[in-house]
Specification:
By secondary structure, the chain is mainly beta. The protein is built from one helix and ten strands; from the N terminus they run αββββββββββ. It has one domain: Lipocalin.
């Protein structure tokens, strides 16, 4: 009888537990530039959300101007949301360094506006460990997102910009999610 009661209690707890699963994605196009560099970036992302836990896989094609050079990159990330704050991390690489970047970030979002700060570290032994920081603000009138930001220090990049400007600088981005 005790085992039956324990099993019944466990089933009651499990039956009362619910969770939400969402799968989606996004396609974005971005332009970034400074006095010496200009680039166009096209990015595809697949997102999986399980309540407050978020996972994403991201791949992109970059067109460096005026050299007309093409490159690819990827990112895999996870994040956790508590109220209006989100904390997360990503790992990524590109055609030259398969595992090159590790980023940590914190976002604050209220309704459809927000700001974030991101820190980039290198997993590439040929680079310094700390690669820089990025600050940005955004407006998200779904299904669109508009973002402006500034990349501080050479190489600073995160999930908000698919690729970095060598000398850092300002950027603008428009994104359509579905």
């Amino acid at each position: 009888m005790r085992k039956l009661l324990t099993i019944g209690l466990v089933l009651a707890i499990v039956a009362g537990t619910s969770f939400g699963l969402e799968v989606g994605g996004s396609t974005s196009a971005a332009y970034a530039g400074n006095a010496d560099e200009k680039m166009i970036m096209i990015d595809q992302e697949i997102d999986i959300d399980l309540d407050a836990l978020h996972f994403d896989v991201d791949g992109g094609l970059d067109f460096l101007l005026p050299e007309n050079e093409r490159a690819w990159d990827y990112e895999i990330g996870a994040a956790y949301t508590i109220s209006i704050f989100t904390f997360g991390a990503t790992v990524g690489g590109d055609k030259d360094v398969k595992l090159g970047d590790v980023a940590a970030y914190a976002d604050i979002v209220y309704e459809n506006v927000g700001a974030d700060i991101d820190f980039l570290f290198s997993a590439d032994s040929a680079k310094d460990g700390f690669q820089g920081a990025e600050f940005s603000a955004f407006c998200n009138p779904e299904p669109f997102e508009f973002r402006v930001g500034y990349m501080m220090k050479s190489g600073a990049v995160d999930a908000n910009t698919p690729e970095a400007l060598t000398d850092g600088g300002f950027y603008a981005k428009a994104k359509y999610s579905y």
